[in-house]
Amino acid sequence: MLIWSINSFELPSYIYTGIVLLFSAYLIFIDMLKPSPDSNVYNRKEVKIIRTYHLFIKYPMGAKLFSVILNTFRWSAIIWTPWLYWNHSWILGSLLLFNFIFLGNLAVKLDPIFFYSDAVNRGKYQFEEELNDLKNLCDKLWKINTDIEHSA
Fold first, then answer.
1. What are phi and psi of 87, to 5 degrees?
2. Could you tell me the end-to-end alpha-carbon distance of the chain, in angstroms, rounded to an integer?
3. pLDDT for the residue numbered 20
């Protein structure tokens, strides 16, 4: 798209920005549809984790893929934003910059084990407790699902 926009600027820029914004809006929308886990089965911390990382817990492979796609779109803003500003397309450039700045948290929610493991490996140990809680909950949910499948 970027190469196409060198010859014909407006159409590829609008198409690319539209794709990025539609994908981001879709992710924001599905992230807002949080489940209501049973407080009799899960403690308060587990309920918070389930509500925060529900897409990763319910669809682990899809959430990881969406995280990669979202980050690809986010980091492409480093190239697209100056290009759009250079061509006096302030609104499109600002939208991509906004997308870059504010959707990093959503990318972490979609693949928290990758991001928290990376942070802990880099010496940011404040994320270690969250990582361990998430792994324990995933193991617990996996065990519950395995027990249900074996009893059926």
1. -95, 20
2. 50
3. 94
Contact of 47 with 39, CB cutoff 8 Å: yes
Structure tokens, 31: 């992230």
Amino acid, res. 61: M
Angle, alpha carbons 149-55-110 (nearest 5°): 130
Overall average pLDDT of the 82-103 stretch: 92
Please count the other Cβ atoms lying within 10 Å of the Cβ belonging to residue 21.
Answer: 16
Instruction: Outline where the chain has alpha helix (H).
Output: 2-7, 10-32, 44-52, 54-58, 60-86, 90-102, 104-110, 112-121, 128-151
Amino acid letter, 63: A
Provide the pLDDT confidence category of residue 32 given band limits of 50, 70 and 90: very high
* Dist. CA 136–CA 133, nearest whole Å: 5
